[in-house]
Amino acid sequence: MARFAPKDMRGRYMAAFGEGFAMLAAAGGPDVHPHTTSAPEDQMRWDRDMENFDQDMRSIEAFILDVLENRLKTEEEVRKAAFSFFGIQGLWYTVGRKMAVTIERIYGRANLVECFCNPGNLLATYNRAAREHNCSACKPLALWSPLLVAGIGSAEKR
Q1: 9: nearest Cα among 75, 86, 53
Q2: pLDDT tens digit string along 35-88?
Q3: Cα(1)–Cα(58) distance, rounded to whole angstroms?
Q4: Given pLDDT bands bounded at 50, 70 and 90, which one contains residue 13?
Q5: Distance CA 66, CA 81 (A)
Q6: What is the C-alpha to C-alpha distance for residues 157 and 149, in angstroms, rounded to an integer?
Q7: Can you tell me the distance from the alpha carbon of 132 to that of 20, in angstroms, rounded to the nearest whole number?
């Protein structure tokens, strides 16, 4: 069985957050519901799923830490876990879009595009944007753990 290298995390699975970036782009901007032109049940599903943002973010975080800390040993184990976050519009979509919207609102579209081009910077940039947002927000946004942000940076250097 092939061993999965944590450095592959950025190229393969950090880019999965691009699904959320695509939702933002397709909607036309951060203030447009991603399912404006969809069936009502799709809008309701999206809204319901977005209410689980904090929990969904922690699920993805646990997955990435499992990869970085070698708890998932093979490419197949990693792929199976990662693909469980896709679905009709799973966690890669919802968490990715929330991060993309937050970054765009705080830092602008150019910074968001930079994160898309360099996904290893995404989590740290989101955390900075979320902290700024949280200074004046009624409902604060969850942050990625420092352990994870540091782990992604370390994996990039391997």
Answers
A1: 75
A2: 999 999 999 999 999 999 999 999 999 999 998 888 988 889 988 999 999 988
A3: 28
A4: confident
A5: 10
A6: 13
A7: 21
The residues with which 74 forms a beta bridge, in sequence order, are 3
Quickly count: other Cβ atoms within 10 Å of residue 133's Cβ. 17
Q: Which of 123, 119, 112 is nearest to 147 (CA)?
A: 123
* Four-residue CA torsion sign, 9, 12, 15, 20: negative
Instruction: Decide: 142 and 57 in contact? Cβ < 8 Å.
Output: yes
This model's pTM is above 0.85: yes
Contact 93, 19 (CB under 8 A): yes
Dihedral of alpha carbons 30, 11, 155, 6, sign? positive
